[in-house]
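Lecture notes, unit on binding sites. The following record was shown on slide 14. It pairs a sequence with FE2/S2 (inorganic) cluster.
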Amino acid sequence: MSKDNHKETLHSERRAFIKTTVLGGGAAILTGIPLVSYFIAPALKKATGKWVDFGAVEDLSPGSIEMLTYEFMVKDGWLVLPQRGFVWAKSNTDHNIKVFSSTCTHLACNVIWQEETNHFLCPCHSGRFDSNGKPVAGPPTKPLATLEHKIEEDNLLVYLTL
Ligand code: FES
C-alpha cells in the first residue's frame, strides 16, 4: 500500500467514526429525551398542586361539616381536562377550620359525611371515620388526609394536589 493510499484510508475511517458518533449521539438524545420525560414527568406532576378558592369563610356554618365542590381545568400535555371533586370542611364554633380530603385511605373511594351517625362513610367497603377523620370501622387504617388551607381576604383557600 502506498503512503497516499494509507493516508486516504485513515482519513475515511476517521470520517466514518465521526459520522457514527454524531449519528449515534443524535439517536441517543432523540430516544433518551422521551424516555427520561416518560419516567420523570409523572414524578414531577405528583408534586404540583394549586390553591383553590372556596368562597367566603363566613358561609361555613360553625359546628358543621360541609361538602365543598370544585372544578377547574388542568392542562395535561396537549389536552385540557376538567378536574372535579369535593373536600369536607369542618368549622368549629371557635372558627377553627379543618379541611379533609374526600379520598378514603383504603382504596380511594369518596367518603360522604353522615350527620345522623356523626361519621364519614365510605360506600365501597363500609369504612367509617369519625368527625376528626380517624378510622373507626371497616378496612381503613389511616386517617383521612387533612388539606393545607388558608384564609385570604375572608375567603377559604385549599391547596389541592393535581
Ligand atoms: S375504599 Fe373506602 S373502605 Fe375501601
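Take-home: The longest helix spans residues 3-46.
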